[in-house]
Amino acid sequence: MRAYRNEIRRDEIRETAMMKRLAAGAAVLALAAGLSGCIIIASEGGERTVVVDSAPLAAPAYVSLYTDAVADPKRPAEEVARDPLRHPAEILAFAQLAPGDKVADVRPGAGYFTRLFSDVVGPTGRVYAFVPERTMARENPMADALVAAYPNVTRVNGLLDAMTYDQPLDMVFMSQEYHDFHIPGFNTDVARMNAAVFAALKPGGRYILIDHQAAAGTGISAVQTLHRIEGDYLKREVEAAGFVFEGESAAVANPADDHSLNVFDAAIRGKTDQFVYRFRKPG
């Protein structure tokens, strides 16, 4: 009887994993079929205009890699529970992540995206968990746990506005972090940080930024009070470093968010209106 129950349990686990892969795969395919690339939301004078981005999505052959990464049983349950709000398969597709890529995950925290990146880039790739010197006493142990669990992950410490890596990168990624680096306590020159990212990337490399949207026209005035940044302001800063803006994903957008609440407010936490931008280094 016990063996029978164990077999049923194994079947249930396999079925759950399959359903996760199918759901994630359907989401990525819908993104590719429905958008034919991605959607750029350009704001001028407070008005939002929809423009189709001609840049291609990641190769369809990688869809299974993204869905398998999302369904990886090594992922902590608390991270899997956040997937319906964070749409990881769509983010991986928009980021155009590929096997063999060399990637920096800036301030990775507990490693939500680091784990996914590790699975996709595989043994010929490398994921650098970049922990700023200011927060390394608290965050290095989390990065070291990722290094211990994933052979292709390396922890790097340094100054945000002087970050360097031991090889040219294909992608630098920041999720919900960029606004923080404008807070005076981080003592970071954001223009120099963007220049350092530019220098760290290969020609054609990608700079992926996810952050909480602030009200139009507010720039960086809410970075400390609400932990939000105006997307258009961020875009201008990054372009000033030499990057070309390539497109935006609406995977984690929420039009119901009026941008007035602190992102940690219980009424909006985990459900903020977020932009996902892809910039590219020319070349």
TrEMBL record:
<protein>
    <recommendedName>
        <fullName>Class I SAM-dependent methyltransferase</fullName>
    </recommendedName>
</protein>
<dbReference type="InterPro" id="IPR029063">
    <property type="entry name" value="SAM-dependent_MTases_sf"/>
</dbReference>
